[in-house]
Amino acid sequence: APATNGAFRQEMRKVPQGDFIRPNRKTNGVGVQAEDTRICVVMVGLPARGKSLIATKVVRYLHWLSIGARTFNVGQYRRSATPNPSADFFDTTNTEGERLRKAAAEAAVADMVKWFRGGHGMVAILDATNSTKSRRKWIQERCHEHGIHTLYVESKCDDEDLIMQNILEVKTTSPDYVGQDPEVAAQDFRDRIRNYEKVYQTIDEDEFDLTYVKLIDVGKQVIINQIKDYLQSRVVYYLMNLHIKPRSIWLSRHGESMYNLDGKIGGDADISPRGEMYARKLPELVKQSVGDGRKLTVWTSTLKRTIQTARFLEFEKLEWKALDELDSGVCDGLTYAEIEERFPEDFAQRDDDKYNYRYLGGESYRDVVIRLEPIIMELERSENILIVTHQAILRCIYAYFMNVPQERSPWMEVPLHTLIKLTPKAYSTHEERLSADIPAVSTFREKGTSARIGDKERRESKTSVAS
Ligand code: ATP
Ligand code: F6P
Predict the structure, then answer these.
(1) Alpha carbons 86 and 180: distance in angstroms, whole number
(2) The complex's ipTM?
(3) What pTM was estimated for this model as a whole?
(4) pLDDT at residue 14 is higher than 60
(5) Cβ contacts of 451 within 8 Å, gap of 6 or more
(6) Mutate which of 261, 265, 323, 458 to test ligand 2's pocket (most atoms within 8 Å of Cβ)?
(7) Residues lining ligand 2, CB < 6 A?
(8) Residue 36: what pLDDT?
(9) Radius of gyration of the chain (CA)
(10) CA pair distance 178, 302, nearest whole angstrom
């Protein structure tokens, strides 16, 4: 490595724009999208059709891709004037109710326009029922005045059982019903829906000029109209992959590797004897967490340490190149202390901005997120999946589900020999951790040091064994 390093650096220096050019360092996954793009995603549908859930997920997905996005929830604006309305507030013959609801929508749209003007992001989500043609026309005109494109996302679902389930899951605990009996709240919410049904107009041919996606029965059928640009098509593709069947995702790093023992990064080492113990214990740990008889698919990277770790699991297995560890380029096979010694400037730059720092000839966390996007899409489409992968990759997948900001995600501590269970809930993800109780080195390095936790103790114990 050192010989090629020099040559590599010379090559890099030949680039006229300056030292250490790393092309596309700031590429953020928006691809060909223009920087000044402004898209308002307008949610459409009766209450309890998953609009807020969809909005929350789209914002989380876009944030993960470094695309500024925010939800403007009209219900929250309405709540500041009318915190606990009963169903007749939503009856369109109630003129005071109509006035207050229009005022809430106006306030949300005005804030959204301000947000775009402030350059805070590319995608705003207007989360409301927007269930009449006249309301949609008004939004269309307001957005047009301010150069904002619109993408209407309608969720249409007539499955009474599912709607009742949704009401019980998220509506009876809504701030609209604090302190109320859940049964009374559920009945009131059903009456609220009846009031909306009286005036609800689904998006149809009259609105052929709108850009829209219509999700019918949680994506069993999808109708798409006039999608105009790259970012819109990405959002639509994401929406097409969503489902709401109960499931979990399990994440584990590979068992301790021989490289982990030596403090080296990257490579394709075998697992250590303790890593082997973890591999042998993993089926039991998985059984404990997954339960009997549940279908599960195991995904690994193409590197030996994950394949060896997963080999005793009796489930269908898939190897993904996209799950291989972050490529550390010319630093592959070195310890953090060696990197600091040979490439002090690079070492400091990585500490400064770990998310964006790209190893010479290798990758950054930002690059990893881009290559993981198909994995996220596939995860959204799938049911129970166990992923056995690597430290940096696990951090990026975890960050997507747990909404961890990118300044923090590369610094998260993810211990070896631990199974993490993530269960998507209505607006968040529930996490459980199960330790295998098999000792392993820590591969976690804190900012500002080249030592990993426990390095000092390990050195001392090696010296005492030698002496
Ligand atoms: P409201 O108009 O009252 O704000 P909403 O349409 O925003 O209601 P959510 O609060 O998002 O509804 O409802 C979440 C519930 O909807 C969850 O229980 C979730 O499982 C379910 N859900 C998610 N997506 C869909 C969908 N496409 N169709 C029907 N239900 C869905
Ligand atoms: O040390 C284990 C390891 O998976 C390395 O192969 C990899 O380079 C590193 O972790 C990623 O972690 P960090 O980004 O904190 O250096």
Answers:
(1) 11
(2) 0.89
(3) 0.91
(4) no
(5) 336, 337, 445
(6) 265
(7) 260, 265-266, 325-326, 328, 390-392, 410, 443, 445
(8) 83
(9) 26
(10) 51
pLDDT classification of 406: cutoffs 50, 70, 90: very high
**3-state SS track over 413-460:** CCCCCEEEEEEECCCCEEEEEEECCCCCCCCCECCCCCCECCHHHHHH
- Report how far apart the first and last C-alpha atoms of the chain are (Å, whole number): 32
CA angle centred on 326, ends 323 and 329, rounded to 5°: 135
Asked about 254 being catalytic, the answer comes back as: yes
Which among 91, 127, 340, 346 is annotated as catalytic?
127
Question: Which neighbouring-strand residues pair with 316?
Answer: 297
Rounded to whole angstroms, how far apart are CA atoms 157 and 442? Answer: 49
Ligand 2 atom with minimal separation from the 264 CA? 1
Instruction: Report the C-alpha gap between 62 and 69 in whole angstroms.
Output: 7
Is 325 part of the annotated catalytic residue set?
Answer: yes
- For the Cβ of 130 lying below 6 angstroms from any atom of ligand 1, the answer is no
Ligand nearest to the CA of 217: 1
> Which residues are bridge partners to 431 per DSSP?
422
Tokens of 306: 């994950």
